[in-house]
Amino acid sequence: MSWMDWLARLGMDADPSKPGFQPQTSYLVTCLVMPIAIGLLVGVGLRVIEKIFNVELGKGGH
Amino acid sequence: MSAGEFSFNLANMPWMIVFGLIVGALGGFFGVGGGFLMVPMLNVVFGLPYNVAVGSDLGQMCGMSTAATVRHMRFGNIDFKLATLMIVGTATGVEAGARILEVLKHAGSIMVAGKNIDLMTLIMSGVYAALLIFLGQAMIRESMRTLRREAGQVEMSSEVPASGYVLKIRGLKLWPMVSLPASGIESISLWVILGIGFATGLLSGMLGVGGGFIRMPALVYIMGCPTVVAVGTDLFEIMFSAAFGVATHGFKGNVHLVVVLALLIGTTVGAQIGASYTRRAGGPRVRFGFGALAFVGVLMVVVKLALKLTMG
């Protein structure tokens, strides 16, 4: 899976023990954007499912 | 060790998703994030160093709380003013917690029982064990009290929040004072809100937990917020503190993106499964099971530490 390798490579670059280390902007952005995007997708997706099928799903805990 | 130095075997990805599914289902069932369980288990089961486990868990927590916040917004359960004010205290606490973890990461190792063990593992294991014991015994005691109350053995008043105490906190005239109409609070010191935010942020940044198990009761019992508003506001707050935590741990290279992705796939699905089953079980029994689960977590942390000390 090439996108999985890409994710793994971003992590490899984020190595603070390397001399002159600075985290890549793409690594930092992915750290933030990926979880929020998946969360929004799930949250909004569940609302859409509830509206279409007229059911109330679990509130999703924390 | 940073996320870059930790080589994650992609063959373990399905196991990590299953693990996320189980923790997510337990979290959804018990109504908590499960961070306090996730981090020690990532260390014990998958061998992630604590700093990488904390950073990656904050990543999955950010996604989970975003999904849950979207759902709570639908029910109008979020006090946005309270959450915004609390974020200032939380952000400061998260940064302080991440810095403590950073100091521990470079603290080296010490000799215990003739074996060399790194200080971070030793201290974090101890803190987690203490936290899980505190949480477990509190939930077991509370659930047993509620079960006895349901059986008519204890007076109903034992579960009602101490209104006198709440009034005392609200009466603290420590400038500046703020009003929170959405929570039904006319006036409260800003320092109370910032203090609660800082304490939970510190736990979040250092231990990778959402801090909901402290913040939610604090909002109800210290500030006197309605429970549903406390739950919704807490989730909104977790979303921001986790995002801030991910950013600050990202700068330190502690977030393993593949681990975050695997956990998120599992936990988002698992949380929905768990939450739908909560309705079928009684609340006190659910909390009793949660308390027992915390002690299983303590056992696993202690066994791993003991194995490290005996086998090296």
Plain-language structure description:
The complex is a heterodimer of chains A (about 60) and B (about 300). By secondary structure, chain A is mainly α. Chain A has a domain at about 25-60. Chain A is about 65% helix and about 0% strand. Chain A is built from 2 helices and no strands. The mean pLDDT of chain A is about 80. In chain B, the strands form 2 sheets. In chain B, strands 1-2 form a two-stranded antiparallel sheet. A two-stranded antiparallel sheet of chain B has the order 3-4. In chain B, a hairpin with a 4-residue loop joins strand 3 (about 175-180) and strand 4 (about 185-190). In chain B, helix 3 (about 50-75) packs antiparallel against helix 9. Chain B is built from 11 helices and 4 strands; from the N terminus they run ααααββααββααααα. By secondary structure, chain B is mainly α. At the A-B interface, helix 1 and helix 2 of A face helix 1, helix 3, helix 9 and helix 10 of B.
**Structural class from helices and strands of chain B?**
mainly alpha
Give the strand line-up of the largest sheet of chain B.
1-2
Number of strands of chain A: 0
Our count of helices of chain B gives 11
Please describe the biggest sheet of chain A, giving its number of strands, its sense, and whether it closes into a barrel.
none
Greatest contact between two chains: A-B, 36 and 63 residues
Percentage of residues in DSSP E strands of chain B: 5-15%
Q: Indicate the mean pLDDT of chain B.
A: 80
**What is the global morphology of chain B?**
globular
The structural class of chain A is: mainly alpha
Instruction: Profile the largest sheet of chain B.
Output: 2 strands, antiparallel
Order of helices and strands of chain B: HHHHEEHHEEHHHHH
Distance between the termini of chain A: 31 Å
| Total beta-strand segments of chain B | 4
Which strand-content bin applies to the residues of chain A? under 5%
- Which runs of chain B of at least 5 residues are low in confidence (pLDDT < 50)? 155-162
Radius of gyration of chain B: 20 Å
State mean pLDDT of chain A (0 to 100 scale): 78
Count, helices of chain A: 2
